[in-house]
Amino acid sequence: MLSWFIETGQSGLDECRLMLVPARRSSDALASIGWSAEVPLPLLCALLRSWEDRFGARIVAVLGSELHVSVARPPVNAEHANLLALEHVLSTADNIVDDPPTPFPEYAMDLLGRTCWSFWWD
């Protein structure tokens, strides 16, 4: 995942710190640390828990109001990708809903085989 940050030119890496969070599941980590962004945290944690079970999704980085997730088993068919894309919209993340305004079918198909998901809230 670190190589993805470097390859995509993500900023803020120089300010990153390693943190071990006492949580049974990756999806519970945000609530455990009291993370705050413009998102309903219980909804986001529920979505993350579902993605963890279905796709092997794990939180790998939190940078301010950005969340980065590594995905072990990304969707491989259009039906799963469409459902997942709708769930990404439900996350209320600004990069999914507003920036950039990607047409829903295009966004859903882009999730096929994708092993890194990123979300941010302004």
TrEMBL record:
Protein name: DUF4253 domain-containing protein
InterPro entries (alphabetical): DUF4253
Taxonomy, superkingdom: Bacteria
Stretches assigned to the DUF4253 domain: 17-122
Pfam family, one: DUF4253
The species this protein was found in: Streptomyces rubrolavendulae
